[in-house]
C-alpha cells in the first residue's frame, strides 16, 4: 500500500464509513496522554486509526486525528495550540483543521469549520470530529471527571 495518495483516494477514504469493532473501553487521555483506536471500513479492506492526544501543560491543547493506511493523516483538528504556517506563508490561528492535500500530506491547515467554532468542550469536539470523519460505530471512550 502506498503512503502517497491522490486527492481522489484521500477524499474517498475520509468519506468512507469507519467502524470500531473491538471490545476495549478507552479513557479520554489526561494531560500529556494519548490513545490510538483502530478502526476499519465495513468490508475490513481499509484500516484507519483515531488518535487523541493531549498537551502536557495547557488543558485546552488537544489533537484529534484520523489516519489511513497506518501513517497517512486524512484529517487533524488542532485545539489550543500555536498557529500553523502553511507552505505559502499564510498563518492560520488555532483551532484549525488539517486535511490531506495531494503532494503536501497534512502540511496545509484551514480555519476550523463552522461546526467546531465556539465549542469549548473537548469531549464534545471529539464526538463532532468522529462524525466529521464518518466514524459510524464509535468506540467506548470514558470521560474523566476533569478533562
Structure description:
The structure is a single chain. This protein is mainly beta and 147 residues long. 14% of the residues lie in helices and 35% in strands. The protein is built from two helices and twelve strands. The strands form four sheets. A six-stranded antiparallel beta sheet has the order 3-4-5-6-9-10, covered by helices on one side. A hairpin with a 3-residue loop joins β5 (62-68) and β6. The termini are far apart. 25% of the residues are buried. The mean pLDDT is 92.
Please work out how many helical segments DSSP would assign: 2
- Low-confidence segments, given as residue ranges, are none
The coarse silhouette is globular
Provide the spatial order of strands within the biggest beta sheet.
3-4-5-6-9-10
Share in helix: 10-25%
Rg, alpha carbons = 15 Å
Mean pLDDT: 92
Largest sheet: 6 strands, antiparallel
Amino acid at each position: 500500500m502506498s503512503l502517497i495518495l491522490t486527492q481522489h483516494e484521500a477524499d474517498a477514504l475520509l468519506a468512507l464509513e469507519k467502524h470500531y469493532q473491538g471490545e476495549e473501553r478507552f479513557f479520554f487521555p489526561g494531560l500529556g496522554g494519548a490513545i490510538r483506536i483502530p478502526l476499519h471500513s465495513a468490508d475490513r479492506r481499509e484500516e484507519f486509526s483515531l488518535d487523541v492526544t493531549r498537551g502536557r501543560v495547557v488543558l485546552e491543547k488537544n489533537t484529534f486525528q484520523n489516519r489511513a493506511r497506518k501513517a497517512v493523516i486524512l484529517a487533524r483538528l488542532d485545539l489550543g495550540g500555536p498557529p500553523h504556517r502553511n507552505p505559502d506563508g499564510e498563518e492560520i490561528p488555532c483551532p484549525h483543521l488539517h486535511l490531506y492535500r495531494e503532494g503536501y500530506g497534512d502540511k496545509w491547515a484551514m480555519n476550523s469549520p463552522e461546526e467546531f467554532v465556539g465549542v469549548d468542550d473537548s469531549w464534545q469536539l471529539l464526538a463532532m470530529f468522529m462524525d466529521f470523519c464518518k466514524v459510524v460505530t464509535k468506540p467506548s471512550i470514558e470521560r474523566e471527571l476533569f478533562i
